[in-house]
Amino acid sequence: MQVREKALDVGYMPHFGLFVQGAYGNPGLNMLKDKFAPYYIAGVRLSWNFGSLYTLKNDRRVIENSRRQLDSNRDVFLFNTRLQMTQQDHAIRSMEKQMQDDDEIIRLRSNIRKAAEAKVANGTLTVTEMLREITNESLSKQTKALHEIQLLMNIYQLKYTTNHE
Length: 165
Known about the structure:
Structural class: alpha+beta
Shape: rod-shaped
Protein name: Outer membrane efflux protein
Strand order of the largest sheet: 1-2
Number of helices: 3
Helix content: over 70%
Number of strands: 2
Oligomer: single chain
Strand content: 5-15%
Organism: Bacteroides reticulotermitis JCM 10512
Low-confidence stretches: none
């Protein structure tokens, strides 16, 4: 933005130039003498483009609007990033709570399996029903493993969002 403002300032300023031109010829600058003579011309050149003064105010407004839009985009980006970080942090806490519940479920399923094994040993429960309880315990362990992976995924997403390694 500052470069664009400086370009506007340069655009409406006058431009000065020095020039020197020399030669040796017949005739020289005096047309009445018919012989070879050296000559030179030196001077200062001034050029000023008034057209840029007509659009200067509008160009400054465009630059100011661009600056405001850039600030607004930055604020929106920061807001969205903070919102995303909050959501990811909530998901991590939720998964940690779920993992605690999974530990409790595994403990209860393990107790049920042990009770089923004792009932099978006493002959009051069939082997099929005991296998169902063993399967349920195994499924709850698999669910806990899935939740651990999801927790790690949420942690890495948060690290990616916050640009931490």
